Amino acid sequence: MGDAFIRHIELLGYEKRFFPSQHYVYMFLVKWNDLSEKLVYRRFTEIYEFHKALKEMFPIESGDINMESRIIPHLPAPKWFDGQRSTQNRQGTLAEYCYALVNLPHKISRCLHVVNFFKVRPDDMNPVTDSQIKKPEVFLLPKDAKKNSTDITGPIVLQTYRAIADYEKSSTSEMALKVGDMVDVVEKSESGWWFCQLKNKRGWVPAAYLEPMDGPDESEEQEPNYAGEPYVVQKSYTAVEEDELTLTEGDTVEVIHKLLDGWWVIRKDETTGYYPSMYLQKGGEVNASVKSELRNRSAPPRRSTIRNAKSIHKQGRKQISQETYRRNSKKYIQSRRNRRENFQNKANVIIEKKEQEEDKPKAQPAVPPRPSKDLILTRCTESTRRKIL
């Protein structure tokens, strides 16, 4: 594999920390060319120093020689005192800066200065903390916030979930769990992989291994939608369990129930079953990087496959049986067919009526009676009178 480079940088939000003194750090999810995803924390003063050094390395692209040649994005200087308001208001600008940075020519976006700045540091993995100091406050930037700083959440009390079984991580971007571990969820992905933190550790965890503290989590899931949403299969999968489906890349399906563990119930023709959501893409959406990203990624485990799960709740999750999915799905398909047939029948009736009306002979106008000889002699011209004489 060639040199490492960054594919995407996503600003997740910022943290307000209280050790060794109160300060703010921005949270970035950095996605690398080897498909790994790392969470790093940077102060704005660090980012600005990085920005100044980048401009010095590329004077033409920074506009120092000719402003019309500038392609390196602008970044405002830090204030003498950066408080929470300025930290919050700067997020939109910083998110745009990171997007523009990654999309610069490769000689800039993939240079060692950029790569080294966003590499994981020891303090990213094990930030300095003190048990006597207040826990950091997390302020997340919603995905749809864009430039509107008023939409930024905060402070956020992250949701706490409990591990119901031991989990051994299979990559460096994941985090191992022991039954009973209490984790804070930073990001919930539809793929069934959630980004969590446990004390000083952070990483991706299968949602199937987590349960909320206040009760079963089926209330967080959407209700089944038997009308179905059109999706396209981006990666083939061979069923392992009886209630799963085997599909090939390019197949079109309908998603009828999106579940938190990343295994969605889909319909192919009249057959329903589970399929990994991370291998699906919504119909009509174009994402060229999806196929390459999926080659080395595996689907998260399903809840039904977890052995020795130990829940703290007396009442378990209310799971819908696959037979119920099939029955309700068939009912919907049949009702849709009936509606289509009724509509078609009505359309046929209208067409037949029009055809019948067209086939009927049209009424001919009445022929007026021929005028009498006396009337012609008294009212017509000389030439007409000569013809009857």
Automatic annotation (TrEMBL):
Protein's GO biological process: respiratory burst; superoxide anion generation
Region (Disordered): 310-389
Any Pfam family hit: p47_phox_C
Domain PX, residue spans: 4-125
Keyword Phosphoprotein among record annotations: yes
InterPro entries in alphabetical order: NADPH_Oxidase/PX-Domain, NCF1_C, NCF1_PBR/AIR, NCF1_SH3_1, NCF1_SH3_2, P47PHOX, PX_dom, PX_dom_sf
GO CC annotation: cytoplasm; NADPH oxidase complex
Annotated Gene3D superfamilies: Phox-like domain (3.30.1520.10), SH3 Domains (2.30.30.40)
Protein name, as recorded: NCF1 factor
Organism placement in taxonomy: Eukaryota, Metazoa, Chordata, Craniata, Vertebrata
